[in-house]
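In this supplementary section we document a worked example of the pipeline. Step one takes a protein sequence of length 534 as its only input; no multiple sequence alignment statistics are reported here. Step two produces a three-dimensional model, which step three serialises into structure tokens for compact storage. The input and output of this example are shown verbatim.
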Amino acid sequence: MKNKILDFFNKLKMLFKNNPIYLAIAIVSLIVLIVGSIAIGFFKSFIFLFTVDGILILCEYLNAKRNKQKKLENNQDNEIIINSNNDYNDDTDYEKNITVEQEEFEPEDDNVENSYKNNRSSEIMATNKKVVKKTNNKNVKNVNNAKNGKNTNNEKKLNNKPANQVKVENKKVDGKSTPKTKEQKKNKVKKIIKIILIICFILGIAALIAVCLFFKMIIDEAPEFDVQNLMMKESTILYDNNGEEMGRLGSENREIITYDELPEIFIDAIVATEDSRFFQHNGFDFPRFIKASLGQAAGNSDAGGASTLTMQIVKNNYTVKNENVEEKSTGFEGIKRKFTDIYMAIFKLEKNYTKQELLEFYVNYNYLGSSSYGVEQACQTYFNKSAKDINLSEAALIAGLYQSPGAYDPLDGEENAARAEQRRLTVLNLMERHGYISKEERKIAEKLTVDKIVVGERPKQNGDYRAFVDMVAEDVKEATGWNPHTTALDIYTTMDREKQDHINKIMSGEIYSWENPAVQAGIAVVSTKTGAIA
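The serialised model returned by step three reads:
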């Protein structure tokens, strides 16, 4: 038994030594089997590898068998050439063959006999010329010696050997490679190509396993979708220098509106701007994804992120909520977040909710600036009217806020109002491009600028400390990537409320009389030790 096992391993060792490709297949298969067992299970991995390895080994076996057959044929051709040369090495052989031919044919007169002998000699000479061209330099010399009636020692040794033991040396004749040398070069090229293909196949298998593991991680770590989680239940709390609460950010001011109550012009504006194929895809727009990916790879920053409207619901409320935006948008974390968005959009939302319900989620639960959450409250804040009563120009303004409510808030200074106007014009152009409005309708809506349609006022929040709170919110967002209006945080500030209250009384004229009501002033109390603003 022990001898049989040793014999088996010796045969296996020789097989791997003579065929390194088999060794490579065995090693890679073992690695893939281990990784695959963790990712998709041992049985599935074994069946997959059994099929693939069987195909590879069969192809290699058939190829080796074919090469072996070609090698035998080439050896037989070389033996025939040598045997032909040996048959006609000397004059005695020529005469013997001629004599045999003469005895067989028995010509009637001398003329026929001479004619036959001359013809036969010509044929023999022609045969010898062909043989000379196909043999090496030594054989050429031997043939010439044979014609002159001389047999060399090498020729005698060659003639004494059996035909199957004669070996032909692979040397160049007239500077050209023999057929066997060409065949070896051809086989070498084939072997290199085969190794390259095997390496590519191995890399492909490794990539497939990596992709399977990546998607398994995405599925395992993806959160469960719950409509209640779309509403922010916690606010950002700001504390003064004594650790006491001085204000809050992100407390929701929201009114829910149904899909049937939404004006059609607003739905068209949202779809044209955020996801033009929303009603056609299943949560993931593959053509748009490829186009955006190629654009970003080419360095085009305006190529977009290819997030569908459904994916944005996931991103804004799950994968980026309460997370650092910068970390979640770059590197491996950015890729992981993007594919988590895709997975949840397809399997958690699109399969369980209608397109109308998804649109309700999107328009009702997003923050739209000026402490307004959802389209209904935003319309009340900016236009003093319900969402169902807005016109085309107003719908374009609200639809533009979804991309960046902080930057396009028309009530947050002249700079933001100018950005909001440019964004509104972009939305109108997109609506025309996708066929929702005509050119004439776009031109009419363009005349109703932001300063004409926005009539509301920014809600007062955090009372006397609003300027300080807004500055803190901007600093936190710049330093951490977190938006305090949408991410619940605890922020400890340097605010000295006693000093701030005293300054507010001065600015309001309560304890100081200003000579001219038009006079404007600004005061900042700064610590000389730390530079902190009180």
